[in-house]
Design goal:
It comes from Pseudoalteromonas obscura. The protein is α+β, with helices and mostly antiparallel strands. It has 5 helices and 4 strands. A 4-stranded antiparallel sheet has the order 2-3-1-4. The two termini are 82 Å apart.
Amino acid sequence: MAQHDYINKTPKKKGQKKQQPKTQKPFPKVLAAFAMLLIGGFAYGLWFIKEHADPAKVQQAQTPAEPTAVVENKKELPRPPPFIDDMKKAKVEAEVKVIKSRGPFQMQCGSFRTYEQAEKRKARIAFAGLLSEIRRTEGSNGVWYRVRLGPYDKKRDAESDKNRLQRIKIVDCGIWGWT
């Protein structure tokens, strides 16, 4: 990079500006001639149409025509196929299967060592608009506090609530049969 000597440079005076000579662009003669040619051609075209118009057609265009009634041609519909009548008379017999419900379902959304942690999870679930309960269970590895929701008659209802909780970032819920 070249070095500049800024020390010996004298600053510009306030009122002094570098003036550039004003240069006028030459008049575009070709463009002006082309524009005049276009305007003249347009004017000649209008004059030619006016002078060579058919007087009968001009008179016809100036008088409004009476509206004529539009006649619609109604087409006849094709006759319906014969199986339509058969369908109206037919009876459908179907065997209805009753799906056996697997029983009520529950959803567990956490298992904690302390009751305070379980209460925090229960509060977050309550903000989603769902009711939950905390159950204390004792096992071989100590006391656990489980946060549960339910019972649900259908698994679809439990899945709906699980999706609702996933939207507020509670993702560790499991669904299984009621015990």
